[in-house]
Amino acid sequence: MKLIFERSREGRGTAYLPACDVPERLPAGELRKAPLRLAQVPETEVDRHYSELAQQTHGVNKGFYPLGSCTMKYNPAVNEYAASLPGFTDIHPLQDADSVKGAEELCSRLERYLAEITGMDAVTLQPAAGAHGEFTGLLLIKAYHRACGNTARKKIIVPDSAHGTNPASASMAGFDVVSIASDAHGCVDLDALRAAVGEDTAGLMLTNPNTVGLFDPNILEITRIVHEAGGLCYYDGANLNAVMGIARPGDMGFDVVHVNLHKTFSTPHGGGGPGSGPVGCRQFLARFLPHTGGAESIGDVRSFGGNFLVAVKAFAYILSIGAEGVPLAASNAVLNANYMRVKLADVYPMAYDTVCMHEFVMSLEKLHHETGVSALDVAKAMLDHGIHPPTMYFPLIVHEALMVEPTETETKETLDDAIAILRGIRDAAQADPASMHEMPLHTPVRRLDEVGAARNPVIKYAF
Questions:
Q1: In the chain, pLDDT over 70 holds for what percent of residues?
Q2: Per-residue model confidence as pLDDT tens digits over 170-221
Q3: Does 269 share its domain with 123?
Q4: How far apart are CA 180 and CA 197, in angstroms?
Q5: Is residue 154 one of the residues assigned to a domain?
Q6: Candidate from 11-25, 253-267, 387-401 with smallest mean pLDDT
């Protein structure tokens, strides 16, 4: 399709604003030196341009979006409506406290709900994203050890299957990162963990279920080992969809947790935001939380109370599905993932062929070796069928990985269609491997030079 500037023609356009009828009083130094470069197009072309963009944009409102570890699920539009109410959108954080009691009550109740779901004692809504929540939680751990005089505790243990933000957040918080290997079953290697802990251990960062979609059967032993070494346990809540309302991080022995409201609690994920990553903690860490005003607080990590309208959506979501709906959503996410896993296991070898949680990982290493068809080729072929590809080449511990998360909001019919498409792609890969390298064939843009685009991006229009 053409860019809006390519549709532009000199002198075209629609102007509804009347000419200014009062003297202009703008400082000369603030005026533009040249006219603003805007496309000159009639209203019909503007409408068609943005309609075409919308038609070419893939989202959960258009098709299946099984992006592993990202929870691209359908989020009820009523929660967007709730967040657009004037009583929420027209307030300001600096106005008199007596005039925003409703907003304060909403945040307070949401904090209590999230504390109950995670098994924590206190929650802050300030962090603006998952990684921001990680950073905030690590600052709590750092403040705790400093208050206890344990300044030698500078190491954070992170499994090799962790999200990339885990080691990055730990490093940003001033810790040294110690990576430990996974065992043959895709979970934490207990011997490696025992060897890693010591008097310099500040804590452990762990996702459970983990990045390969497995609930670690040794989770209580893992947190016990870290606690006995004097460290604290941080729970990355990115995969909470699989266990919310069923198993709580606090009951697993974790001391700090972040929750992605933009994955689990109704705000759409992706597109650059806004997100929200509330952090919960045990009572002994509560004095270090942001926004407490206490001398030991780590201080605000974001302005005011965080992304308030995201909190409104999460509050509406929890209220609408209720105490029964929270675990039901998790159960359906697990059911959908296992249904797809079993239906595909005979043609796509599973990295860990056992009961998974909300996502599963396929390894196309054998297919790649036999035919030359890679995980990337299969992902590109899915585009021709109107499916967004799964996560590719992650986690790094699985070669030629495709990580699939169907989410709880997809129907059996949608899953059956996706299964049939993936099986058909496998047949095509066996019958005509060379053709797979040309896909996609029917998308608006064919296969791109992704390396070139990453290294030499064109980010502005050349007038």
A1: 99
A2: 999 999 999 999 999 999 999 999 999 999 999 999 999 999 999 999 999 9
A3: yes
A4: 11
A5: yes
A6: 11-25
Say how far residue 29 (Cα) sits from the centre of its chain. Answer: 44
**Measured distance CA(415)–CA(395) in Å, rounded:** 23
Pairwise CA distance, residues 16 & 29, whole Å: 28
For residue 394, tell me if it sits in a domain. Answer: yes
360 and 290 inside one domain: no
Distance from C-alpha of 453 to C-alpha of 74, rounded to nearest angstrom: 30
> CATH no. for residue 119?
3.40.640.10
Are residues 301 and 332 part of one domain? no
Which class for 252: exposed (0-12), middle (13-18), buried (19 or more C-beta within 10 A)?
buried
Pair of tokens at residue 384: 């021709």
Residues forming beta bridges with residue 256, ordered by sequence position:
234, 281
The CATH number linked to 379 is 3.90.1150.10
Radius of gyration over every alpha carbon of the chain, rounded to an integer in angstroms: 25
Domain limits for position 425: 325-454
Say if 3 falls within a structural domain: yes
Q: pLDDT tens, 57-87? A: 888 989 999 999 889 999 999 999 999 999 9
210 and 171 inside one domain: yes
Percent helix, strand, coil in the chain, to 5, is 40, 10, 50
> Does residue 272 register a pLDDT over 70?
no
Contacts of 257 (CB under 8 A, 6+ apart): 118, 120, 137, 234, 235, 236, 237, 249, 250, 279, 280, 281
State in Å, rounded, how far the first CA of the chain is from the last one.
18
- Based on the fold, state whether residues 301 and 348 are members of the same structural domain: no
Average pLDDT over residues 328-344: 98
Pairing of strands 155-159, 201-206: parallel
Based on the fold, state whether residues 191 and 84 are members of the same structural domain.
yes
Q: Give the per-residue pLDDT at 199.
A: 97
Residue 66 lies in a domain: no
- The angle formed by the CA atoms of residues 85, 86 and 88, to the nearest 5 degrees, is 75
Task: Respond yes or no on whether the N-terminal peptide bond of residue 209 is cis (omega within 30° of 0).
Answer: yes
Q: Is the pLDDT of residue 273 over 80?
A: no
Question: Considering the entire predicted model, what is its pTM?
Answer: 0.92
Question: Do 425 and 440 lie in a common domain?
Answer: yes
Query: Mean pLDDT for the chain?
Result: 94
- Please tell me whether residues 299 and 374 are part of one structural domain: no
Considering its fold, how many domains does the chain have in total? Answer: 3
